[in-house]
Design brief:
Elements: E1 3-7, E2 10-12, E3 18-25, E4 33-39, E5 46-51, E6 58-60, E7 68-73, E8 78-83, E9 92-99, E10 112-113, E11 117-121
Parallel strand pairs: 2-11
Antiparallel strand pairs: 1-3, 3-8, 4-5, 4-9, 5-6, 7-8, 9-10, 9-11
Length: 123
């Protein structure tokens, strides 16, 4: 059974850090581009970051560039999203997703999704 499981969310103060994990089971992440998306209440799901399967190229939304870092550990079949200098506007449910095509910010291009993990940035 193909499954993605996110973890690492929580409550953090503005300026703090969190590291999200996306662990895969039932398939090997090596052959997939993995994206992180987020959805805040009342807003559409937006692409945050993506890492390609071929050469490990990374992509970031302008809103998180310089603060978030995506990485993958193929040996652990896991992708990470390191989030630093968090802001209240980063509050959302964060999802990881897999696609066999190249990275994009379009959620419709991703066929497998995790259940999401809540990130709340508040003082």
């Amino acid at each position: 059974q193909v499954q993605l499981v996110e973890s690492g969310g929580g409550l953090v103060q503005p300026g703090g850090s969190l590291r999200l994990s996306c662990a895969a089971s039932g398939f090997t992440l090596d052959y997939y581009a993995i994206g992180w998306f987020r959805q805040a209440p009342g807003k559409e799901r937006e692409g945050v970051s993506c890492i390609s399967s071929s050469d490990g190229s990374t992509y970031y939304a302008d809103s998180v560039k310089g603060r978030f870092t995506i990485s993958r550990d193929n040996a652990k079949n896991t992708v990470y999203l390191q989030m630093n200098s968090l802001k209240p506007e980063d509050t959302a449910v964060y999802y990881c997703a897999a696609t066999v095509i190249r990275c994009s910010g379009l959620a419709t291009n991703f066929g497998s999704w995790g259940q999401g993990t809540q990130v709340t940035v508040s003082s």
